[in-house]
Amino acid sequence: MDGEAIGTNVICQKVRTMILQNKFLPSQRINQSELADTLGVSRTPVIKALHMLVAEGLLDNIPNRGFYVHKLSLRELYELFMIRQCFEMISAMYAAEYGTEAEIDLMASLFAPFINHEPIDKDQYFTADRQFHTMLFDMCDNTLLKQINGSMQILSRAFVPGLLRPPQETLKEHLEIIAAIRAHDPLRAQEAARIHIEVTKRMLHETERQIRILGVSEGAQDNVKKS
């Protein structure tokens, strides 16, 4: 790879991180000149990087208007959670088969502070939640799965704070996944991971169904603010 290509990839990674960390909000227009100034680069590699993020589904390129942060529709969120569910089921099976005791102990330690402890600090819990799912995915030795996630950012985009269920609901689900992994029972771990995602997936599906009944448009054409 030449220097320009490497620079473009670095810029792409930086902007991707900014989007996933909500430093750019859904439907927000990306000012290319301001972004180039912020990153200390010229507009050319910035534009190339933005086109790469369009291919990943993180941005929309609207003719004669520019680049906008893609706003997920309910249908897209549901589809992301369908894929995330598959990812996590596969990851849980891998972890149950090949996870080391040290890795499993570390996973368990993430939730240890919340067991038999009320009230649970939601911010601390959700940080542990995200660390757990990241670790679970990292334990999966499936190159193709990681390539798909790398190109579409499935896990990061599906981890929407507003969709996180209360700790009182999910703590026992996390502990069951860990228990199945510690027992080195791949099928039990797979089912525990499936159940964990299923509730949110059903909620999204039902919400979309109700919106359709009401006749309210929730399609991709509503994803970008009119200017």
Strand order of the largest sheet: 1-2
Mean pLDDT: 88
Structural class by sheet pairing and helices: mainly alpha
Distance between the termini: 38 Å
- How many helices? 10
Low-confidence stretches: 1-6, 220-227
The best one-word shape is globular
Number of strands: 2
Helix proportion: 55-70%
String of helices and strands: HHHEEHHHHHHH
**What gyration radius follows from the Cα positions, in whole Å?**
20 Å
Give the biggest beta sheet: 2 strands, antiparallel
Strand content: under 5%
Structure description:
The chain is mainly α and about 230 residues long. About 65% of the residues lie in helices and about 5% in strands. The chain has helices at about 5-20, 30-40, 45-55, 75-100, 100-110, 120-140, 145-150, 155-160, 165-180, 185-215, and strands at about 60, 65-70. It has a two-stranded antiparallel ribbon. Residues about 1-5 and about 220-225 have low confidence and may be disordered.
In short:
This protein is mainly alpha-helical and 227 residues long.
Question: What key phrases describe this protein's structure?
Answer:
disordered N terminus, 10 helices, 227 residues, two-stranded antiparallel ribbon, mainly alpha, disordered C terminus
